[in-house]
Specification:
Elements (H helix, E strand, L loop, with lengths): L14 E2 L6 E3 L6 E5 L10 H13 L1 E4 L4 E4 L6 E4 L2 E9 L5 E5 L5 E4 L8 E10 L4 E10 L4 E3 L1 E3 L6 E2 L5 E5 L6 H6 L1 E5 L3 E7 L4 E6 L8 E6 L5 E3 L2 E3 L2 E8 L3 E6 L4 E6 L2 E7 L12 E4 L2 E3 L2 E5 L2 E5 L2 E3 L6 E4 L17 E3 L1 H10 L5 E5 L18 H6 L6 E5 L2 E5 L25
Parallel strand pairs: 5-11, 12-21, 14-22, 23-33, 31-32
Antiparallel strand pairs: 1-22, 2-7, 3-8, 4-6, 6-9, 7-10, 8-9, 10-11, 13-15, 15-18, 16-19, 17-18, 17-34, 19-22, 20-21, 23-24, 24-25, 26-33, 27-30, 28-29, 30-31, 34-35
């Protein structure tokens, strides 16, 4: 049967505090990651400080934003430049989380890695060694703007701590995002196992990250959205960071054939069950495609023309109401013919086994149907080929993630992937009608 229930709430997540700074020591090597920490505010000007400022100016040591600047655009960040020497230390003082930065090759330029926080006061102290080996110091204190409009971001993975191998990272924004490339650049993913994937915009208020192939089972994922201070649209800024940590569970994959009236259940790379089923009857055909499990209930109240029934052991995979569920009333037809209203009917014992194993994000592939899948009817990220997925990114780049974080890479430079369906990837054109 097909449920008349609508889309479950998807917008969940965890907001964190504004970022500030942390004391750092810079080393003059290529792209060293530096962090800056909290400290006290600026002291009153003295003759010694005035002399130091003059020496810094002579050495070409400068900080942007300049001292006493107000309403600084936070997405411009902080830049320290040594025109006639090398940067030694950069200290950023403010309230909140660390400010990190990158030191250029040669040690002449330091720039903050992420956007600064909105409505924040910063003091930056930088030292450099000039051409004759003398240490000089420059200081700048400034404040970032308080935006009139802000956006919030939520992550679906705030609901659970374990997900299936097909589960995307799903972000939802409270306002339309037009500066999509900058939003993508602000997102960082750490994974316990190496993963390649891409961000994909699904409209202007949703952004998903999907791996190129299914996540390795047991992968630990840590997401950091450095969105505080990012300008998502003209005059609209993020006002908080977003973080979440969770794990990918075991690999649990369903392949259900509307033609053979059987489904295979794969667990951690091995087929452990081959069960009789009955799918949608003509006119109510269960649509082809690789979907993901969304939610489950025992029972679920399913309503439609001529029926209203509490259905045990029900696992949803489309918003329109397709489930894998116990259908004790159609056991005689299962394995032989299709009689359901669109769901995958299963024997009671088999449905219970699957229900107890399933978590959100487990792949479910329907094959052999005369009906094609509809994009957006469920979590349909795996309808997309790898090329289509990358094309959905504002940067049109792939993302390589690992224990040290993520970087954007040209997808043309990646090695070829030899992944087999159905254990590691969805099949090409899997949503097309048979």
């Amino acid at each position: 049967m097909r449920s008349s229930e609508g889309r479950a709430g998807q917008r969940h997540g965890r907001f964190t505090r504004h970022r500030g700074g942390l004391a750092i020591t810079a080393m003059p090597v290529a792209l060293i990651l530096l962090s800056a920490c909290s400290g006290g505010g600026p002291a009153a000007s003295t003759p010694a400080k005035q002399q130091s400022a003059a020496a810094a100016a002579a050495a070409g040591l400068s900080i942007s934003p300049a001292n006493d600047t107000r309403n600084v655009a936070p997405d411009k960040g902080i830049t320290v430049t040594a025109a006639h020497g090398k940067i030694g230390h950069v200290t950023v003082t403010a309230a909140g989380d660390p400010v990190t930065g990158l030191l250029s090759d040669g040690g002449t330029v330091w720039h903050s890695q992420w956007a600064l926080s909105v409505s924040q006061h910063y003091t930056v102290t930088a030292t450099a060694t000039n051409d004759v080996g003398k240490t000089v110091t420059a200081t700048s204190s400034f404040g970032t703007l308080t935006p009139r409009q802000t956006f919030q971001t939520q992550i679906f993975e705030g609901l659970n701590k374990s997900f299936g191998v097909g589960m995307p990272i799903k972000l939802v924004f409270s306002r339309p995002i037009t500066n999509r490339a900058e939003v993508e650049r602000s997102l960082q993913i750490k994974t316990s196992k190496p993963v390649v994937g891409a961000w994909d915009w699904q409209g202007d208020e949703q952004l998903d990250f999907r791996p190129q192939t299914y996540w390795p089972a047991g992968t630990q994922i840590s997401f950091d959205g450095h969105l505080d201070g990012v300008q998502g649209a003209p005059g609209v800024y993020g006002a908080a960071e977003l973080t979440q940590s969770y794990r990918i569970g075991a690999s649990l994959i369903v392949v259900a054939s509307t033609a053979t009236h059987h489904m295979s259940l794969y667990y951690n790379g091995r087929r452990i069950h081959y069960w009789p089923i009955s799918t949608g009857r003509p006119g109510d055909n269960t649509p082809n495609g690789t979907y993901l499990t969304i939610e489950k209930g025992n029972p679920v109240d399913m309503k439609g023309p001529g029926y209203n029934i509490e259905v045990p052991w029900s696992v949803r995979f489309t918003w329109s109401g397709d489930f894998l569920h116990d259908a004790y009333w159609s056991v005689g037809e299962q394995g032989f013919t299709n009689v359901s209203h669109g769901c995958v009917n299963m024997p009671p014992a088999d449905a219970e086994i699957y229900y107890k194993m399933a978590v959100p994000g487990d792949p479910v592939t329907i094959t052999g149907s005369p009906a094609g899948g509809v994009w957006g009817n469920g979590w349909t990220d795996w309808f997309l080929s790898w090329q289509q997925l990358v094309a959905g990114s504002a940067l049109h780049e792939a993302v390589q993630a690992g224990p040290n974080g993520s970087t954007f890479v040209n997808p043309a430079t990646l090695p070829a992937v030899h992944a087999s369906w159905p254990l590691h990837i969805s099949s090409p054109h899997n949503a097309a009608a048979a």
